[in-house]
Amino acid sequence: MSHFYERNSAGEIVPRHFVPMASRPGELRPTRITDARKHGWYASVTTIQGMLDKPGLNDWRVTEHLKQAYEAVAYGELTPQVLREMGEEEYIKRVKGWTQEQLDKAPQQGTDFHDILEKYFSDGADIEWLSKEDRYTCAMVDELLTKTCGKQEWITEKSFVHDMGFAGKCDIHSPEWVIDYKTKNDATKWKPGKMAYSEMCQQLAAYRVGLGLHNARCANVFVCIPTGEVEFHEWGQEELDREFANFTDLLRIWLRNAMYVPGSVK
Predict the structure, then answer these.
(1) In a domain, 175, yes or no
(2) Contact (Cβ atoms closer than 8 angstroms) between residue 257 and residue 33
(3) Residue 230, H or E segment
(4) Domain interval for residue 25
(5) pLDDT of 125 above 60
(6) Angle CA(240)–CA(241)–CA(243) in degrees, nearest 5?
(7) Which of 57, 90, 98 is nearest to 189 (CA)?
């Protein structure tokens, strides 16, 4: 889903990820590029990065399609007779639907834990409502950040827009550091030392410019939700400079294709 932000007349940054549905008053739908163009809203860094091919995600989709198709037949949900009656088109549609359900689950779990981390660092470590498991994982993240970054005055979930034409929301930052969390919902996908990819560096490089922290150090904190394991990966300055240059190229293409200037109203 695409994310957009508005800088209103008071200078406040307002998320515009959803808009009211004209046909169903009171209901919302995801914001489209046509909505953003009409209001001059800024696209998020990750929305702009959506132009890039994601081999890992594509491979996951193919694997999940095959897995869902196999399980439906192997465990008797779709017998040969049912398959014949259903037909190829309906079968493909149904398997794609099952895959999309799995795809929707993963981001939501990650979003939920991002919210937990935000409350933990905003409200302090003594949060009574946290489960024992979540409290442990948050403490591990806190300990890791203190060990690697030193004592910092952390700011959580800060939104920004930049005059170059992009926007975003940073998980956690300080004057010295810009940090983005990456969660793993499946312990079998936890591979220490092998989870950092260039698009993550690119995202952080854009965030530090968007926040006006051009010399801040940048890192991803990986969190395995099932086990509470955490890992810290800092990106080097040469990597960040290279990836910001790549991002600016990508941004120019996105803006050209979008056919509007963020901040202006059609």
Answers:
(1) yes
(2) no
(3) strand 230-235
(4) 4-258
(5) no
(6) 65
(7) 57
pLDDT band for position 107 (cuts 50, 70, 90) = low
Give the global pTM.
0.85
Give CA–CA dist 153/186, Å, rounded: 31
Instruction: Indicate the DSSP class of residue 72.
Output: H
Q: What total number of domains does the chain contain? A: 1
The token pair at 69 is 């198709």
Q: What angle do CA 95, 103, 181 make, to 5 degrees?
A: 165
Judge whether 111 and 46 are in contact, CB under 8 Å: no
How far apart are the C-alpha atoms of 257 and 165, rounded to whole Å? 13
Asked if the structure places residue 116 within a domain, the reply is yes
Q: What is the token pair recorded at 166?
A: 């992009």
Give the pairing type, strands 18-20 and 28-30: antiparallel
* Strand segments (E) across 127-216: 155-162, 166-173, 177-184
The mean pLDDT value for 5-28 works out to: 93
Taking alpha carbons only, the member of 264, 184, 247, 261 closest to residue 50 is 247
Bridge-based pairing state of the strands 177-184 and 166-173:
antiparallel
Collapse the DSSP code of 20 into the 3-class scheme (helix H, G, I; strand E, B; otherwise coil) and give the result. Answer: strand
Q: At 66, which CATH number?
A: 3.90.320
Q: Which two tokens stand for residue 143?
A: 């300990």
> Is residue 37 situated within a structural domain?
yes
Q: Which residue is it, tokens 């995202």?
A: 203
Dihedrals φ, ψ of 213, to 5°? -110, 65
**Is 14 within a domain?**
yes
Q: Report in angstroms the alpha-carbon separations of 225 from 71, 90, 118.
A: 26, 36, 15
What is the rounded average pLDDT of the residues 88-108? Answer: 75
The two tokens of residue 210 are 């968007």
- CB-based burial of residue 69 (10 Å sphere; 0-12 exposed, 13-18 middle, 19+ buried)? middle
Choose among 158, 159, 165: nearest CA to 36. Answer: 165
